[in-house]
Structures
1.
Amino acid sequence: MNKVLLGLLLGGGLGVLDGLTAWFTPEVRKDILGIVMGSTFKGLVAGLLIGFFSKKVASVPATVVFGVIVSGFFAYLVAAQMGKYYFEVMLPGALVGLVTGYVTARYGKGAPAGNPERRAA
Amino acid sequence: MTALPDAAVSRLVRAIRAPDLSGTRYVLGREVGRGGMGSVWEAEDPELGRVVALKVLDLPDAAGDLAARLKREARVLARLEHPGVVPVHDVGTLPDGRPWYAMKLVRGDRLDAAAALLPTLRERLRLFLRVCEPVAFAHARGIVHRDLKPSNVMVGPFGEVLVLDWGIARLLDEEASERRPGPPAEPPIEPCEPRAGGPGTAAGTVLGTPGYMAPEQARGDGGVDARADVWALGVLLRGLAGPEALRARRLAAIVAKATAERPAERYEGAPALAADVVRYLDGEPVTAYRERPWERAARFAVRHRVALLLLLAYLAARAAVLLVYGR
């Protein structure tokens, strides 16, 4: 699977999972649909960016760091909107980026920029 | 009568055996090896300014069998232009009638000695894969080595692998063309069955080295094909892996398939064997072993352990946040 599609699917999938955990918090359970949609959108965008980054930069560590930063930043935006729960939102968010970054860089197929041999393949 | 000192005797023996290179452009150096039918000498080529290895018959061969075998070996090597096969530079005949050929001088260690320096199984298996490459190349050109063993594989200082001693190699296409009516497709290389063998290579109709010979080759059956080399490669693989590594069922199954009693049960050729070793190294299923579901799951978990650990870390963090903060 190419890196962009893999990043998109993984980011989206983990975003859904992350959103669904809101069900365990009774005070926000009624808003779960919106939370899941928001979380999924956040995951899709992060996954897309991570996928493109991984395609351009053929480096697992660099993609992992990029994934943590991007997902952490999106999680920060969500937490900042609420004005609280920074740690509770940003920790799992950053870990989603870590997983997406690693899996995309390690398993995704796609020619990194400046590598004509792999592009030809 | 006074006995000659050992040093004097060895000098005399060397003087008798040493090839007379007058009439060639080479300058004789020291003896670097000795095989079943001849010896290998270091020689300098002043014209090109390089040192080569010269393989020469020990004695003039009146019957011509060994001479034909040496010439044939040179032609086989010339046909196999591959980085893993020693290139032949020149051929000729000495004034005393002994044929010779000049080839690249190989410096390095025998396969087993080189493998002993590699600490991990993975590195030894990668070395084995490099042995398979020239053998597979030869098989693709219809040539079966028939004498693969550690002393016939040299590993150079940069890790380059060279398969040596193609003296008893079998040319499948030539034999096939002999059976067919009409002229052969390529210039013929006379098949040769020497009457005399030497240390390391058995003599007579059975050619090869005990322990590395496929059962059908040891029986002297006709029709030995690439699967005889697969058998020898299997023995080499067993030696390189070692008994500890062979406790792994998948690797043991690869060795067992390569060294199956019946050729039909072995890998078809060196590429198929190498492909299974690559699969083993990559943590993928091998064709030699049918896994049980839990073995497949365990292999999957080992292969993707980092990704699974990261996923577990995420789930653990999510669970911790839920339990500690309730959200």
Note: Residues 73 and 167 of chain B are 5 Å apart (CA to CA).
2.
Amino acid sequence: MSAVVNAVCIAHLRNCFEGGVPSALSTCSVDGTPNIAYLSQVQYVDQKHVATTFQFFNKTRQNILANPYALLKVVDPLNGSGYKLHVRYLRTETSGPLFESMKAKLAGIASHTGMTEVFKLLGSDIYEVERVETIVHPMPGILPAVQDSLPKLRHMSAMLNASRDLDELLDNTLTALQTVCGIGHMMILKLDECGERLFTVATRGYDQSGVGSEIPMGHGVIGVAARERTPIRISHMTSEYIYGKAVRDSAEALGLHHQLETAIPMPGLPECRSQMAVPITAGATLYGVLYVESHEDLRFTYDDEDMLQIVAQQFGWMAQSMACADPAEPATDTPTLPASTASFTVTAVSAPPMTTITPALGDERPVLVRYFKADHSIFLDEDYLIKGVAGAIFWKLVQVRQHEGRDQFTNRELRLAPDLSLPDIADNLEARLVLLQRRLAERTRCVRMHKTGRGRFQLQVMQPLKLQSAD
Amino acid sequence: MTPALLSDGTVAFIQREVAIDVASCSSDLRPSACRGFACRVSPDRQRLTIFVRRGEASQVLQDVLGQDVIAVVYCLPETETAIQIKGRQISLSAANADDVACVERYRHAFVDGIVRLGYGREFGLSHMAIEAGQLVALSFTPEQVFEQTPGPMAGKRMGGSQP
């Protein structure tokens, strides 16, 4: 039953480190007493190295510091094969990419189970794999997975490359993941101007799009992936959740209730069993996060993580390039078209309308646009539309519409508008405009935004608007 | 060993559909390990018997004979509740027909348990496959019991308390 593999390479065992089946680590003290423990997380480092989490100063830790030889049993959750890895402890890392990656994954698990103060990664224990022994062979009839990552990546890269603006880039990215990778549920989130929150700009596969929803930096797998700028993949939600709950029960028994925070509701699927959050970066700049999830266990593999990370980087560079390429049109270029091209009446509570045009089609009933300065929130009649920067932009647009009688705008005039005080980050304005455009399309039939050229758009209003501002 | 070492709760727990892994170590302090299948507790609670697959356990069997030391971890997948028992005075024997029947009952109960958690039955049966002629009964006297449920209490000695 036992077979020794001579050449040490564990790349083909990556599925064993998915957390689907707990691994067992055996160590031995210097007085010859064995110890064996199950592990919550074993990290694949490279072809010859693995890492385990150092969370508590337990017997395993005492043993490896005194005697570095250990035996790690791992199981492939897809085909049932099992392996013994003869490993030697090398060192503990307390900073750097590997530590951050493991810490982020652990923090993501902890965040979802309210265990933030109990699960603390003190270090990543790095082991060199000296020998691999097969103890259980793969189940008969299970064919090895087809290695098709590169053709898929090429296909997706071409789809992203065909995008002419951010709106298309968002849609093409989600379509690529859906059609090429078969991913059913996903979202793209953008980091806000302050670097404190991520807001959703595009989603696919949910009953409610959730565009405009926000997640604080560092919160859940998405927020932690952003903060640590590292992919986080949780492959077996039930198993990971139960692991957290077991520790939680143990901590509660010890009276550590005060350290247990309220569990954060999972974004998207309520019964999600696999999830992956990948940072979208362009060089050193963090753009946001690409998040995918599934009802299936073990839905996303290491190969998927590799692919999504590359797609996310292409997205990041393209979004940045599009924002920078946005023409800085001179102020004189700003169109001042009268509202005669539109079919509505603008009225205001505080000032009489500049123009009154009878709508050719549609409802003549005025829609009350309420703006609250405190958080820049906008309500259309009783329905909440948007808040924050996108809310301030919308208020600016409808005011200009009312006072100047034009419905054509440029990105540049918004960027330079002193009353908006937009930070000098071009891609944030782009993302806010896309967000506003999508929220309008979802939430109301009375106002639409249409792109009319590079850095230009039209605000089309189908019903009279009545503007009202409050503190 | 004190009579209270294995409490009623511990005795019941280790005979449930728990995952069992066994470790020992060689004279040059290299650990060895293998899967365990079913645990039997003697009526006086002085001896525990675990079954192992001979091929996978060859190094463990050499080490327990040479060093007379063993560590066994038991974990209920449903709750992740776990304990570790360390012992000595190890003896080996071939599994008899009753033992094989006991292992088969355990194996199916274990697979039923992980199927309830979402694992495939085929996966479970394949991973827990046994050949009756290859089963070895490994008996030992328990000396220490440790809490092993992940978290701040992991590694604490247990007396007669329940896991």
Note: The first strand of chain B starts at residue 19 and ends at 25.
3.
Amino acid sequence: MKLRYFAWVRERVGKTEEEIDPPEGITTVAELMSWLTARGEEYAHAFENPKVVRAAIDQDHVRTDAAIAGAREIAFFPPMTGG
Amino acid sequence: MSAVIRLQNEPFDAAREQAALTCGRDDIGAVVTFVGICRGSEAGLRIVAMTLEHYPGMAETELARHVESAQQRWRLAGVTVVHRVGRILPGEPIVLVVTAAAHRQGAFAAAEFLMDYLKTRAPFWKRIEYADSTAWVAPRESDALSADRWSGPADMREAAE
């Protein structure tokens, strides 16, 4: 699946998007976030306060307990500040 | 009901957008035009510019969803939403919401509803450039509370927690 990062999550991770293949035991957005956190310092920094990070699956807002099965694109970003 | 939703880099002309919405119509009795403008300072610090980042695709979808939701709540004759992305200078417009209806109540309410949702649910992020630093804008609790006014119990409020 494709991961996309926006705003300070993107800056901290150091990339705008990437393809990943998480292990089978990773079934929810929250689990994906903790799996990513273990991948390196830049991820640990981006997800150091996971409650603040928002997620979208296939461009739809989701809660962190949402299942990731079948997702083509998962995005992580800070709270929105448009308008 | 006509709906125009646009993301663009360049500034917009609010008067022209409003005229385009109402031109040739005699069913419109009220138009509310809201323009959000980039301020020149924040907490006493001078702002050099502001950069709007967005999630292409999702931003348009979310805007369309909120416009549709406004149409379902109020009897609107037309809606125009223009949101700029990229670098914006102080004094320049950032966002435009035009709502038209037969009577003012629906037009006022729909404009507020759309702005409240834009602030908290549409995937845009502001980064401010100061003279010697930059900072991502933090969400304001008052914006979340404003958006909550419109929420039913089954809304996405829980998703934000």
Note: Chain A is about 25% helix and 25% strand.
4.
Amino acid sequence: MRPHIREKKDFSFSEVPENTSFEAGYLVTVNSGWRSIRPEVNSEKCIGCEQCYLYCPDGVIAIRDGKAVIDYDFCKGCGICAKICRIGAIGMEAERK
Amino acid sequence: MSRKFLSGNEAFAEGIRLARPEVISAYPITPQTIVVERLSEMVEDGSLKAEYVHVESEHSALSCAIGASAAGARAFTATSSQGLLYMAECLYYAAGGRFPIVMMNADRSTALPWNIYGDQRDSLSQLDSGWIQAYAENAQEALDLALMSYRIAEDKRVSTPYMANLDGFVLTHTYETVEIPERSQADKFLPPYETDNRIDFDNPKNMAFSAGPDTNYIFKYKAHKGLLAAAEVIKETENDFAEIFGRKYTGLTENYLTDDADYIIVTLGSIAGLCRETADKLREQGVKAGVVRIRYMRPFPNDEIAEALKNARAYAVLEKDVSFGNEGTVFTNVNSALKKSGAEVKGYDFIGGLGGRNISAGDIEGIYRSIAEGTDIVNFIGIGGGENG
């Protein structure tokens, strides 16, 4: 399973590692603020075909219990998943209504 | 210990064999080619047990070394000139990731006009990439740097990649008698590489990640401190080296007759020998001449240079590079060292040897004589001078 972002903690000077190796999930930046539209999966329709999973350029889609699940911490809202979905199970919704 | 008649490239390869790198990535370029050819022969005959990877470019050569280092291996590569510039992106990755890779660079001119001969514009253009930069004067020093480089780069206080520079052709292709240390002594001097900065199935981590504005500056500061810490580690390493192998080195600089010198040339690389000979000749004529050879451009020997120059009447920087639109980069660095120390000594810049042009004993004598009389601030040997040359 892909590691998810950990609980946010402030890195003091001494806590920042000397080199660029560290336990995953801490020293990453959430990119969700970049998004103006967000994909929404209709789980009733989704058949878990994995096309969106394969095409997502950021690798933020996983298939869980046979349905597509989106990691909104890193989804940039490009809409490729909605375009590629042949059964129309993914729609793009405005981020700020 | 044995003696061999070796070129600079071959001497460096001998030093690398003793350092036991586990991965060597190689892409040939004149005048570096022979060092990677000799290493490939050593891997072939079994005297060096390393994974020898033929890559398709210099960008890949250093990327491969970074990958090897990130897997915990001791890695080596070598390049020159355009090859160094082509891998420039990866220089920053290696330094920022704190991967203690060692790379030999054969100092060579950069295009255009195309030219394969020696000057130092390639490596000096990469001073800000975060690598330790050493400049060898002769083949023995080249071998010794190869062996010492990993001790310095891999020290936990440093963890910084190391670029050893050899003047193209003048040093890479000229032959000298070189003392080769015993393997058992080399092993005593340089233990195997151990690091936490590696891919580890028992302790999985993110490697070579991004860091946002909240922490990025701290990583940069720590890399800066690591490079600065190399100054002390170089001294310690040279002391241990002298105890085991009997050859003494003098840290970031090497001074010659500077204690009472009125006129000092500051230079780097293989031209230093001719500067010392010229200083001897001038001393016979009553001119108190001296030489400072910069052995390391990074970390920069601020204190050492200020100390050596502070009582001189004038100094000249003799360098094989120019930062177009300003002056020679070594001159800029030397002037900064003096300014920070508060010393006020008249300084001049002499830019020579570009594209392999010979710097003669007469040129060097002319530098000493012209700084004694006073001359233009920035001078191009063979052309003339001016405020900026």
Note: The CA atoms of residues 58 and 75 of chain A lie 7 Å apart.
